[in-house]
Design brief:
The chain is of the alpha/beta class. The protein contains 11 helices and 6 strands.
């Protein structure tokens, strides 16, 4: 199976043309001519998980890393030890989460989530934050290069996180490790499964499965340019995005929770994840200061409902997804009547 070019931009397709996908959901793995003769390294399991791991070179053989199982720490969830230098997991939750990162010896935190990073708590513990947001549908080539450079050149141990720690964070960590030459795409796909990344996020599996080590010189100097906070949608932009995503989700629902024939690029789980991210962006940049408490309550309800939709689709439960989408739509209508169309 070759890489599906629909997931990539024109630039990405040029850079990735002819690369063989190694997708974990396939019953067998096919290799392109370019990969003939590459030895496969099978990594044995390890019975315990580290609390703190000394920094290792990003190019170390994957034989030095265990086959991990996700573990928990106070304020951290679904933590996976990806390599001697890199962990992935959930967003650090408050003081407890950052204290746990400090106990693990983390020196660099990379967020691929859409929310603004907590720079103050990280800085208070001597950690550098880097913000490289990615989507559920895949990873832009520019972001992939930035991730690879960060993992190769920034001080470790490094903690890569999204929101829940199951999907974008593990995918970003694996992609960075593959493209920086730390281990193979096969190893990356296996680690996605270990982290619990849903196979409904085919864009993430494809990004890792189609990855390969890139020219090291193309990474030189990139890490020094990485920002602590990337631009994120403001309230107005998030509201506009929500309207478009809701239209996409209604079309997906009408197609039986599959990509519509006239819009085959829409991935149900990815759209649900984007919906949840946009609600978080709207919550974090509220412009309704006069009714802050009331508006925050609306946002909490919307976040809970969009999370329910995301979980339902990740489990392939269409009935539950329809109920959640209907609840989101009703909450949006009620909120609009309260703030946008008062008196209705």
């Amino acid at each position: 199976m070759t890489c599906d070019p629909a997931h990539f931009s024109d630039q990405d397709r040029k850079l990735r043309a002819g690369v063989t996908c190694i997708i974990g959901v396939m019953p067998s793995l096919l290799f392109s001519v370019a990969l003939v003769g590459v030895a496969l390294i099978l990594v044995s399991g390890c019975g315990s998980q580290p609390v703190q791991q000394a920094e290792g070179a990003v190019g170390d053989s994957s034989e030095s890393a265990p086959t991990p199982a996700p573990f928990e720490r106070p304020g951290l969830h679904n933590v996976v030890w990806m390599s001697p230098k890199v962990y992935s997991g959930s967003v650090p939750d408050g003081e407890a989460g950052f204290d746990s990162l400090a106990a693990m010896g983390i020196r660099t935190v990379i967020s691929v989530d859409g929310a603004r990073p907590d720079l103050d708590r990280a800085g208070a513990r001597g950690m550098r934050y880097v913000h490289i947001p990615i989507q559920y549908s895949g990873v832009r080539e520019e972001a992939a290069v930035q991730l690879a450079a960060a993992v190769r050149d920034l001080p470790g141990p490094i903690y890569v996180h999204c929101h829940h720690g199951k999907h974008r964070g593990p995918a970003a960590a694996c992609l960075a490790l593959v493209e920086s030459g730390a281990f193979s795409a096969e190893r990356g796909v296996e680690l996605l499964k270990t982290a619990g990344t849903s196979q409904n996020y085919q864009g993430l599996y494809e990004a890792v499965g189609c990855a390969r080590a890139i020219d090291p010189s193309s990474l030189d100097g990139v890490a020094a340019t990485l920002a602590a906070t990337a631009p994120v949608p403001g309230f107005v932009s998030a509201m506009s995005g929500l309207e478009h995503v809701m239209e996409h989700l209604r079309a997906i629902e009408g197609a039986g929770w599959k990509a519509p024939e006239d819009h085959p690029d829409l991935a149900p789980a990815s759209e649900a994840g984007l919906l949840h991210d946009l609600f978080r962006a709207a919550r974090d940049d509220s412009v309704n200061e006069a009714d802050a408490d009331d508006f925050a309550a609306w946002m909490r309800v919307s976040l809970d409902q969009s999370r329910e939709l995301e979980e339902a689709l990740s489990q392939g439960d269409g009935v539950r997804a329809s109920a959640a989408l209907g609840a989101v739509a009703q909450t949006c209508t009620d909120c609009h009547n309260r703030y946008r169309n008062p008196g209705k």
